[in-house]
Amino acid sequence: MNNEQLNIIACNSSAQVIDAIFDNDGKFEIAKHDVLEFTPSGYFKNYNHPERIFWPQNSLPYNQESLYIVDSVKQADKKYEVTLNKWDFGGPTIIGNTEQTCNIVIPTYRLIEVTKKYGFKETEQALEWFKKEFLFQTTENSYLFFRILSNTSNLEGGWLGCNYVANIESKKVDGKEYLFVSNLKKSPQKKLNVQKGIAHIRFVSEQEAIVSDPILNAQLAKQAADPNSIINLWEKYNQVDAQMLEDYKIQSGILRIEKITAKGENCSATLQNKSEEIENFKNIYDQLNANQKNSYSIYVFSKRKSYNICDERIDEKTRTVSWKWGERKPKYDNSEKLELEGFAIDFKPWSIASKRRTAALENIRTRNIPIASITDILNKTTLPSFGSAAVPKRLNDLKIEAAFGNRRPNEAQKRALKVCLNTPDIALIQGPPGTGKTSVINALQKYLQSIDPKHPEKMPSILLTSFQHVAVDNVADGSSIWGLPVFRFYGEQKDKEQIFRGLQKWQEDTAKKIDEQINKLQSDTQYIEYEKLQISLNALSAASSSYEIRNLLQEIINLAVTNSILSPSEVDTLKEFKKKFQVKQINNKFYQCLMGLRTTSTGFNDDGKRMIEHVLEYYDLRKDSLNCYALEKGYDQLKKLANSTPSQEDLDWVEELRNKCIEQMVPNPTDSFDNQLFTILKDYIDTTIEPNIRERIRQTDLQKLIVLNSYKENVGFKSIRNAMLRYAMTYAATVQQSKSESFVRLLGKKNFEFDYVIIDEAARANPLDLFIPITLARKKVILVGDHKQLPQLVDQDILEQMECSNDSRERFEELKGFMEKSLFESLWDYLKTERNDGIVRTVTLDTQYRMPQKLSDFVSRNFYGDETHIQTGKNPNDCIHHVSRYTKKNGDCKCAVWENVDSKESGKISKTNEAEAELIIKRIKEIIKETDETIGVIASYSAQTRLIDKIAKSDAELKKKIDNKHLEIGSIDAFQGRQFDIVFFSVVRSNDRNNFGFLKSENRLNVAFSRQKKLLVIVGNRKMYETEKAQEEVPALKEFIKLADEEK
C-alpha cells in the first residue's frame, strides 16, 4: 500500500494504532505499508506477499474482520517490533466471485475526463489509473476494495479510492446486467463508515465491454453485414478499384528495349514491341496522368535495378522512347554498357493509396480505431450508453469569443465551436460560401491552445487535412501555434529541408512585414547610434588594457552626449572611471612619500606619524591625477594609524598598502590595470547603465526598432523549424499523406494518432480517403464542408464495374445515387434527423461575409432553399467596386450583370465558346485600366478555361496580371474555396437543342455563383437561358437574368 492509499485509512471512522511483536525466523521480511490480516489459525498473512506469514508473540485481541497496515518496523533478535494501524469496518466483508471476472465499465466520457486531467495519451493509461485508485491486489485473481457502508450485499455503492469516490451502479442491457461507474467525485477526506470487499475485478472501457458481450456482438455483426451499409458499399468500391489496378498493370505491359543510344543526359531507345502495344502503353499512361494530375511516372529497369525517368516521349510510329534521367541514374561511359531491359509504368501512387484505403477501411470495419463509436455511426448502429454523455459541458462564452480573435463571431460560429468541443466522437460543420468555416477551424485551434498554455506538453495534438494540397494550404495558412506557422507536411523529399518548405514563404513574408514597420518608424539614425553604443559597451566588458578601456569609455561618453541616452550623472561617473584608467607616469615626489612610510616599530616611533601625514597631504592635493585606487580605498584606515600606536599587524598592512600604491603608479610594458577596479566598472554597467538604457527606450520608437530587428534576426529557417518540431501541436497534410510512411517516420511511429482530426472540404473527398485520417483521431473528428457545393470524387469506371454485380438497372441507379452522395451528406442526414441519442453533432454556419446582400440572398434562395437562410454580415461599403461599365445611372455599383453573347458552342467532349472568351478578355482589359481589384474567370468546361488562359497570356499586360495573381482563370472545380473582387462566369453552352450539360448540376452552379466579393458577370446566350426548359433544368441561371435586369 502506497502513501496515497493510506488516505483511505484517514476516511475510516474506527482506525487505531497498536504495537505488536512478531516472530522473526529469517524466512520472511515485513515492511512499512504492508497490509496484514489476522487468520482463524492465529497468524497474520501479508496481502502484499501472500506467501509470507507472521506469528504474533504478544496476545492482543486481534480481529479477523480488521485490517492492519504496517506503520513502522524495528528488527530485533528473532523478532519484529511493529506499529500497526488497525482498521475496523462498519459492516461485513463483501465477498464477490473470485473465480469469475467482474467487469466494471468506465463510460467513454469518464475515460476522456481522466485522460485529459492527467495528460494520458492512451485509454489503457486511464483504465490503469482506475485500478490503482480503487483496487488493492491480494492474490492473482482477487482484489481488495473499500466501500462506504451500504445495505446491499452486491458490489454497488460508493467505492472509496485514494483520492476519489466512485459510484458503482448496475444497468440492464438486452437482459444482461452491467456494473458501471456512474459518478466520480473527490474523496471527502473525513471519517466514514467503511466496509471492505474482495472480488476478481477488472475496469474496462465501453468498447471492450461491448466486444466481449455475445449478444451485443451479434447485434453488431448483423448490422455490419448489411450490404447497403456505408462501410460495405465502399468496401465493394475499394475491391473493384484494387482489381482495376491489377488489370491496368497487365494491360499496360512493358516496353522491351532493343537498342539504346545515350548522349550526355539525353537518351533514346528503339523498342521490340509492336506499334499497337506501344500505343496502348502510351494511352494508359496518359489516361492515368490526366486523372491524377501527372502523379504517375515511367521507370526503366535492368535485372537488378530500376531508375525513374523524366521528359519521356513515346512514339509508336517509330517505335522509340526518348528520355532524361530522374534524380538517380546509372553509371556508364557509353550506351553499350547500359544493360537495360525495358520500360514500365510506376503504379506506386495507386498501389500505396489503395493499401492505405484498405487498411483504414478494415480498421473501421472491425472497430479497431480509437473512436469506435464512429464505426457504429457509419453502420447506423445505436449501442447502449453507460451514463449520459449527452449533457454538454458548460463552456465559457468569453473564452469562446476570445478564440475568434479580433473578429466578433456570430451565434452560429460560436455554436459550431461548442459542438466541436462537446461532441464525444464526430462533428459536422456545414459552411456555405463565405460563412467563415476557416474562422471556426482557427478558433478551435486557438481555444485548444489556451487550455493550459503553461504546459505545452499537455496541449491536444491536431491534424489539419483535406483531399487536395491547395485546400490544406488554405486552412494551414490561417493557422498558427504561438505565432509560428503550422507544421505543414508536403511529402517525401530527397532534401529533408524541403519537408519544411512551407516555412520559407512564411519566413519571407514575416521579414518583409518587419522591414515595412522598420521603415515606417523612420528612426534609422537613432538606431545606428544605439547599436554603436551597444557595441562599445559589449567590447568594454572584454577589454584587456587600460588604454583600451579608456578609449572605449570615451566613445561611450561621446555617443551618450550625442543622443542623450545616458543621464548627466551616469556620464560623470564614466568620466571618473576613465580618469582612474589613465596610463600611469611615475610621480617621483609621491613615490618618495610612499617610500617614507615606516613599517617597523622603531621606525614608526621615530617619525611614522609625520610620514603618514606627508602621504595623505600630497594625495589630497593631487588625487585626481594620481589615480591611486589602493590609497583611495585605505585612506581612512591609514589616517587612523597616524593618531594611534600601531600593532605589528597594522604595520604589515601599511607595508602591503605601500607596495600596492607603488605597483599602481609604476607603468609596465603590458599596461596592466587594476582587476578589482575593472570588476567594479563592469558591475556598474551591468546593474546601472544597461537597465537604465532599457527603461528609457522602452516606450519609444527606438524600442520598437530594437524588438523588430531582433525578431527579424530570429526568424531564420532553421530556428523556426526547430521551434516547430519542439512546440508543434498542429500538423497539416493531405488525407493520403496523413498516413504516409515518411510522415509517420518524421513524427515517430509510437502512438501515431492525433487528439483532434479536422478535415476541410470533407464533402468533396472520396470516403475511402476520408477514412484514413478518421482512423487517426484519438478524441474527436471534425468534418468541415458543404454538401451543397461540389460533390465527392467518384470514379465512374468503378461504378460501371459495380453495375455488373447488380441484378437490375434500377438497382444500379439506386446504388449510383447513393455512391455519388457524399459521405458528409449521408452523415449529415443521419446525425441531424435519424440518430436520436440527444447529442448535437451538426451545425450550419448561416452568415456570409463575402458578397453583397442581393447576391447572398440569390445563392441562399436558389441553392439552400427553406432549409437554410443565409444572412449577410458584409458591410455594403466593402462591396463597392470601381468599374464604370458596371455602374448604375444613379452612380451605385451593380453587383449582378449578364453579358449577352449570341454564338454557338463548339467541341465534342469538352466544350468551348470563342465569342464568350473574347468578350471576357475585352472586358478585363477595360477593367484593369480603372482598378487593381482581383479578377477571377470561371468556365464550366476545362477546354474553355484553356482557351481563355491562352488568349490572356498572349497579351503582355494580362500575363503580368496573371503572374502577380491579380487575374486567375480556372474551372469550377479549381475555384471552390477561392474568392475574388470581380468574377466572370463563362457558361459556354449555347445550342439549338437547349442542352445544358454540366450546368444542370446545382452543386457546381452554387460554386460558380459564389466566388465574388463585389461583382458577378455571367457571359452567355441569354435567349437560351430564358426558355421554359431552362426554368426546369437550370432555374438558377434564369433567375439570375431577372436579378441582372433589376440592377440596370
From TrEMBL:
SUPFAM superfamilies: P-loop containing nucleoside triphosphate hydrolases. Residues 820-1023 form the DNA2/NAM7 helicase-like C-terminal domain. Residues 410-793 form the DNA2/NAM7 helicase helicase domain. CDD domains: DEXXQc_Upf1-like, SF1_C_Upf1. Keywords: ATP-binding, Helicase, Hydrolase, Nucleotide-binding. The keyword Nucleotide-binding applies. InterPro entries: Coronavir_polyprotein_1ab, DNA2/NAM7-like_C, DNA2/NAM7_AAA_11, P-loop_NTPase, SF1_C_Upf1. One of its GO terms (molecular function) is hydrolase activity. PANTHER family: DNA-BINDING PROTEIN SMUBP-2 (PTHR43788:SF8), DNA2/NAM7 HELICASE FAMILY MEMBER (PTHR43788). Belongs to the DNA2/NAM7 helicase family. This is Conserved domain protein. It comes from Fibrobacter succinogenes (strain ATCC 19169 / S85).
